[in-house]
Amino acid sequence: MRMSSLILRTAVRFILPLTFLYAAYAALKGHNGPGGGFIAGLIASVGFCTYRMSYGDRAFHRLLPVHPRWLVFVGLGLAGTVATLPLVFGQPLLRSASTTLYLGGSEVHLVSAMAFDLGVLLVVVGVAVGMISRLGEELDR
Amino acid sequence: MVTAAPYLVLAAVGAPVLAGLATMLLPASRRLTRLALATAGPATSVLLMAIHLGRNGVSTADTPTGTIAWVPSLNLDISFLVDGLGAFFALLIAGMGVVVVLYARAYFGHDAASLARFFPTLGFFSSAMLGVVLADHLLLTVLFWEMTSVSSFLLIGWDRDDADAGKRAMQAFFTTGLGGLALLGGVLLFGGHTGIWRWSHLMAEAATISHDGTVVAAFVLMFVGAATKSAQWPLHDWLPGAMKAPTPVSAYLHSATMVKAGVFLLGRMLPAFGALALWLPLLVSIGAVTMLLGAVLALNQGDLKKIFAYTTVSHLGLLVAMYGMGGASTTGGLGAISWDLTQIASHALYKAPLFLVVGALAHLVGARRLPHLFGLWHRPGAGAKAAAVVLLLSGYALAGGPGTVSFVAKELFFAATTRATDLHPVLAVVGVMAIAAAACNVAIFVRLTTTVLGHRSGVGEAADAPVVPAGQPDRWAFMLWAPAAALIALQYLGGLVPSLWNRTFRGIEVNVHDEAFATGIPLAWEPFLHPGMPLLMTAIAITAGVVLGFSGWMRRDMVDVHSRIWPASYRGILRGGHRIFHSIQTGHVRHYLAVVFSVLTLCIGWAAWADPAMLRPPAGMDPFEYPAGLLLGAVVCAAAIALPMVTERVVRVLVLGASGFAVVGLYLVYQAPDLALTQLMFEIISVILFLLVLRLLPRADRRPRIRVLPRLALASVVGISIGWMTLLAGHAADNRADDAPTLGKFFEAHSLEGSELTDGRGGEGRNVVNVILVDFRGFDTLGEITVLATAALGVWSMLPGRRRHREEEDLAVDTGQEVQT
Fold it and tell me: How do the domains of chain A map onto residue ranges?
């Protein structure tokens, strides 16, 4: 499946980095402002999909060199690990921990739930991109 | 204080499976090491049990062997009871395990792959059996019981290329699995009713258990479990069917272990339930019928393995009847059960050699049917001669000839039946049936003898015997008959020198109720010095058996009518399941939705009927409070109405998208940026997905399967009632008192910092929505992403990828051609 519109392709060249940037922002900011792993995952997926639609399968494969299922596996593994890790320390499932880092004078508040969120992000991207590209491949036949 | 005893027993239970699994780590070429390791498993169990018994002695109901905490919250722990019954069975199982492992080495010979698969599977089975006989906790027994079902399924269906073996394994698994379920039901019923969850507890409290309906029902269920495992009539057909298994498996499963599990369970239940009025009639009737049926069917078979399978069925019936009559001993002091373990051991000690030698014959001579074995003794080769000797010696024990333990065991049973007639004259029938069954066994021995010793010049020349390649001569070939010889030697040792047997068994025999045998089993010739009813019965049985054996009657292969039960019921289950499946799963989304929505409407209707206030419009609502929301709501409604009118699928998707984007607007109007953003992205992706899928779908099927009017009615009712519910819910939230505790307020209050409600722990975030997602309801999110991942896996597996295809293309076209499109 491919839309060979020059306007779209040119636009996507600029939109794609912005999408990823916004997705990263939403993921990092999510705990305190609008955003979060799920939204960030969807944003990134939309970016991936638009790119695939305008540049085709092969170029998309170059952008994301692994099969999307690896994103799903890694994401689910990360989320599962973060969820079960507290059990090792005798804490209930999913108990979050937090720490504050001082980077160049500014405080960065880190919560373990953010790693969980990152797992959610990866799963969402993997599933959405994987399904769409798989179905797209089917259409390319 | 932590005692070592339960850990010792646990190690004994686990040793066979651990050793079996460890053999898989060794390379296939290290066959001797593998064999040594596999033998070491059950041998370790024997050793550990001996150490345990030496240190702690046999435990009784008051001194169970101790427990290891396992799941304390479920009141489930690993507890063992090494009483006489358990210790005897454990030693029998582990000891027989050693023999079978050694025999399997000779049986499978150079077939290293089979051997590699056999050791772990057999170890698994041995451990499961050891667990059954040693467990103290009722549920632990059930757990191990199920493990024996699973592992015996693997063993019986050993030959993967034989479809019939698979079917037979399935039959065995279904039958014993059904019994396992009944046993679980009985255990739960009993435990829930009386609060007794341990065998030791059960025995100690035996006298106080009331005989009410629940206890009787629990007993019947447990008996069903025991009866299916021990192949009792009418569900005995799985046992002869399981003869599809390789001989080491048959020898192990049908002599000492699997089928004896049911008998063992009855032995465990005897002290507690023996006093039930139902015990004796139920067990004796089922057992006696099985005993006679098995014996008659055994006589009517030509295949040695089938013969011994049916004699096993027969003997299991005998043991069940024996425990049945033992019920009278626990209450009335009637000495109808004595030396039960001796009777069980006697069976194991001649049945295992019989099976082992059948396998040896299949290897050495290439035949298993009686006519093909004619003149076996006169065949060349030391192996065949040795096998013939063992076969005849074991057959003699099968017949219960004087000089063997088996003879004494039969005497014990006859004595029990004569005693039981004191209880009720009708039990004399059991004695008659026992004589008939014994006569059949004698006749089988006569036929074995005449066949094996028959001279070559006679009729029935074995030339038509199928010549099976007997395999390469192997230095382990003697192991084909040596284990059988060792086992049968014990029969004669015990029979001729009973003082040895008595010294071994007196300590563990619990049920010695006949004062005639109070000191021990008698010497071989003692019954002849004090003739009585049992000896008369033996004489009748032997005479009748010899006549029957030489006669021409009952020589054809008889088909057991009960063998039709399983195929018929299996087919019935499959057909019924098929029919139900097709009436429920029509494959049309419309039908599923209709069902789901009808149920939903009914639920809401029921709620409205229960609380008519739901039907009144909420007071004090201003519909025009948010004009923008009203407008967007109208867009959603318009899209919904337009949707069924459009016929083109793509347009439908776009209309659906319009509705979705209007919802995004609604979220913005009501100040929910997170939701709006999510909905927006989700709408984009779902529109893309829809468009992709629609292009892959076949042309629309225009014929509606449900008529339009009912569909319209259902849709309207569902839409209106859900809308109405939403309105009510929103109104209720508006009108709540300000200080009412709600989840929303809790989340708002705790998303950043905790309070004493949450042990001072907060979500450490200002975005309540996200904190709910990853912290408060993080478990939900974990579940949701798992569902997502599963759905994606489904897509990838149902539409198999073309990645390899594409990689090939990549190699061919990796020159930047995509730019020019």
Answer: 6-76+113-140
- Chain B closest CA to A49's CA: distance in Å? 8
Tens of pLDDT, residue by residue over B645-684, are 887 888 888 898 899 999 999 998 888 888 888 889 888 8
Beta-carbon contacts of residue B322 (< 8 Å; ≥ 6 apart): B287, B337, B340, B343, B413, B416
Please judge whether B696 and A135 are an interchain contact, meaning their C-beta atoms are less than 8 angstroms apart: yes
Chain B, residues 746-765, CB within 8 A of chain A, namely: 761, 763-765
Which contiguous run of DSSP H or E holds residue A43? Answer: helix A37-55
Q: What is the largest CA-CA distance in chain A?
A: 58
- Tell me the nearest-neighbour CA distance from A103 into chain B, angstroms: 19
HSE on the CB side for B256, CA within 13 Å?
A: 32
Please give the residue of chain A at the shortest CA–CA distance from B767.
A32
> What is the end-to-end Cα distance of chain B in Å, rounded?
81
Whether this prediction's pTM lies above 0.80 is answered by: no
CB pairs under 8 A between A and B: 163
Q: Which of B673, B779, B786 sits opposite A76 (nearest CB)?
A: B786
**B677 chain-A contacts, CB cut-off 8 A:** 26, 34-35, 39
Q: What is the distance between the alpha carbons of residues B133 and B214, in angstroms, rounded to a whole number?
A: 25
**Bridge partners for B71 per DSSP:** B76
Q: Of chain B residues 302-361, which have a CB less than 8 A from chain A?
A: none
How close B9 gets to chain A, by Cα (Å)?
30
Chain A: residue whose CA lies nearest to B780: A94
Q: What pairs with residue A99 in β-bridges?
A: A110
Q: What pLDDT, in 10s, does the model give residues B558-616? A: 777 778 888 888 899 999 999 999 888 888 888 888 899 999 999 999 998 998 888 88
Alpha-carbon gap, residue B158 to B161, rounded angstroms: 9
Residues of B in contact with A132 (CB under 8 A): 685, 688-689, 692
Residue B96 burial class via C-beta count within 10 angstroms: exposed 0-12, middle 13-18, buried 19 and up:
buried
Q: Please name the member of A36, A58, A139 whose beta carbon is closest to the beta carbon of B767.
A: A36
φ, ψ at B512 (rounded to 5°): -120, 95
Closest CA to B334 of B445, B407, B409, B421: B421
Structure tokens at B556: 């054809």
Could you tell me the two tokens for B187? 């255990």
Q: Which residue among A45, A76, A126 places its CB closest to the CB of B685?
A: A45
Domain boundaries, chain B: 5-174+339-564, 578-616+703-735, 625-702
User: What single string gives the DSSP state of each residue in B502-559?
Assistant: HHHHTTT---B--GGGSS-PPPTTHHHHS--HHHHHHHHHHHHHHHHHHSSSS-SPPP
* SS3 state of residue B369: strand
Distances in Å between the Cα of B412 and the Cα atoms of A38, B408, B534 are 76, 6, 8
Is the minimum CB–CB distance between B67 and chain A shorter than 8 Å? no
What the block records as the tokens of B8 is 């010792």
